[in-house]
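user: can you give me the structure for this one chain? tokens are fine.
assistant: on it. calling the predictor now.
[tool input]
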Amino acid sequence: MGISKLNMMQSHEIDFHVYGDDMQTVEIELDPLETVIAEAGAMNWMEENISFEAKMGDGSNASSGFLDSLLQVGKRVLTGESIFMTHFTNQGSLKRKVAFSAPYPGKIMPIDLQRLGNEITCQKDAFLCAAKGTQVTIAFTKRLGAGFFGGEGFILQRLRGDGMAFLHAGGTVVEKKLNGETLRVDTGCIVAFTGNVEYSIERAGGLKSMFFGGEGLFLATLKGSGTVWLQSLPFSRLADRILAHAPKAGGKSKGEGSVLGGLGRMVGGNNW
């Protein structure tokens, strides 16, 4: 979906380098007075002469008034994100670098918005950082069912602009090209999709499959022609597995970490 250039601030042109494999970091090089925006707490390190400031909103529309800024803040509250975004600006006369990473294992995806119709839709916790001028807002799904039953996909973020944005995905990233096709996906496995792909929620088979299939009650359906990015390990799935294996209240079991401790847990002997 294209965007009128009259309504879109031109994004800053930034250079970058991604380090690592499964615990990646993206280092962004800023020219003098260039700015990158990021989620609060995503910064790893930065060189001298880079200043940072927490601001309400993404700064994509410098002429917006107080009420517009307040509306954008209200939308971010709905996504569960911080009401502030951090703006990192190179105040020096030489190029300087600042780095960002996500708090759990996965891949960092560089996205050139200009090559993707100036717009993508992504999971609400997938956004990591972007060149200033990128508009970060929320995207309500068209169908009411998606809102009530979408799980991680309930509220999605929409990124608009003509510069670079960086997303984070858990585990391995798989890119799918749809050409008038339909793809059914666990809602948590969606990272992002281009603006011409339709998104909805459908029931996951019959009642037995819904309650005992282990795939959740509902699946996301993606239709149309465009690009879809999927992740192999949604953070919610990782967190559920960790909680399931965490020690119960009262401390860890006797012999934990040993062969006997493992056998004891296998036969339900947590307290022997």
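assistant: here you go. Helices lie at 66-79, 144-149, 207-212, 235-244, 259-266. Confidence is low (pLDDT under 50) at residues 1-6, 144-153, 253-272.
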